[in-house]
Amino acid sequence: MVLPATVEPATHFFYPNKMVRIVLLAMEEVMGRNGVNAVLNLAHLHHLVNNFPPNNFDRQVTFEELGAMMHSLDEMYGPRGGRGLALRAGRACFKYGIKEFGPVLGIADLTFRLLPLNMKLKVGADVFSELFNKFSDQVVRLEEGEDRFLWNIVRCPVCWGRRAEAPCCHLAVGILQESLYWVSGGKNFEVQETACIACGDPACTIVIEKKPLD
């Protein structure tokens, strides 16, 4: 059950237009333009209806807006339906994102592709976390253990302004699932959010197991 969003303080943090455009294009692929427009209207983001942000790095979309978008997805389809759609949209986000950010990240070249799997996971996680830290106001702190990575989002736009009884950053989980699939050349990994700011935790923690499922 997702509880109503609460009002956050006036301090604003931002996502770049390019990243939000990717999220909306991914949602459109999963649920169609009418579905996206319905979610945007429910979130009171009427200015984005049939008017996705431009494809640039200007930080003009607030965390409040992105959080409201994700909350409306759950409100419209229910927690279970919203979770499934957000996971699928997250996976689609990576497909669009790698086209935009691949050259910037440097993980699309042959040298990276020839690395052993454990090195690809390490380099990919480091580079991917820095992408968000550099181009947005999202803050990711990466921890590495023997068997897993901890992807800690200490300032999270996905659940910004939300209160929930269970972790709800499904979009972020979907993005990480697909990034691991791509980095590993087609392997699936266990990716699970175990803590969430929306639940009162200090950070949104996503556990990434290093050993593939298949």
Describe this structure in words.
The chain has 214 residues and is an alpha+beta fold. The chain has a single domain (11-209), classed as H-NOX domain. Helices cover 50% and strands 17% of the residues. It has a 4-stranded antiparallel sheet, covered by helices on one side. A two-stranded antiparallel sheet has the order 1-6. Strands 2-3 form a two-stranded antiparallel ribbon. A hairpin with a 3-residue loop joins strand 4 (139-144) and strand 5 (148-155). Helix 1 packs antiparallel against helix 2 (63-105) and helix 2 packs parallel to helix 5 (170-183). The protein is globular, with a radius of gyration of 16 Å. The protein starts with a strand and ends in a 5-residue tail after the last strand.
Structural features:
H-NOX domain, 214 residues, globular, disordered N terminus, alpha+beta, two-stranded antiparallel ribbon
What's the topology here?
Layout lengths: L1 E2 L10 E3 H26 L16 E4 H43 L4 H4 L3 H19 L3 E6 L3 E8 L7 E2 L5 H14 L7 E5 L8 E6 L5
Antiparallel strand pairs: 1-6, 2-3, 4-5, 5-8, 7-8
Helix pairs in contact: 1-2, 2-5
Number of strands: 8
CA distance, first residue to last residue: 32 Å
Largest sheet: 4 strands, antiparallel
The level of helicity is 40-55%
- Give start-end ranges of low-pLDDT stretches: 1-10
What portion of residues belong to β-strands? 15-25%
Q: Quick one: overall form?
A: globular
Q: With helices defined by DSSP (H or I, 4 residues minimum), what is the helix count?
A: 5
Rounded to an integer, what's the Rg over CA atoms?
16 Å
Structural domain count: 1
